[in-house]
Design a protein that fits this description.
Helix content: 40-55%
Radius of gyration: 16 Å
Number of domains: 2
Number of helices: 6
Number of strands: 6
Distance between the termini: 38 Å
Strand content: 15-25%
Largest sheet: 2 strands, antiparallel
Oligomer: single chain
Structural class: alpha/beta
Shape: globular
Order of helices and strands: EEHEHHEHHEHE
Strand order of the largest sheet: 1-2
Length: 138
Amino acid sequence: MDRAKVDILGYGVDTFCFDDAVDYIYQTHGQIVTINPEMIEYGKKNSEFKDLINNAELVVPDGVGVKIGLKILGTTVERIPGIDLGKAILKRAQYLKKTVALVGAEQDVVENAVVNLKFEMPDLNIVYYRDGYFTDEN
């Protein structure tokens, strides 16, 4: 599956529809970014952040502002909300019997996420989870 990207303010945004984005994720490995206007604005002040986004394996338009901006520039894209994309990835992981690790947020938040995901997707194989607060010791 070939990537088609369009530029908005120096960011390359993939033009996949939702289902094709999920398929693409399972054909490749790498960072996925669900870009919104706040991220574009932050990238103006932080070139490392901008480079991180532009080097991602997949950059999809999460924010409606990105979708509108691209439409103004002449490209119609489907908005792909990060939460919906994440759930679709997990549902496919459940179906394919893949293992999943969840890392991020505060400990109670990630623990609640695990409980809620197991309720929603009982066969999801979550093999690891932890908060997103790392130190040199962990």
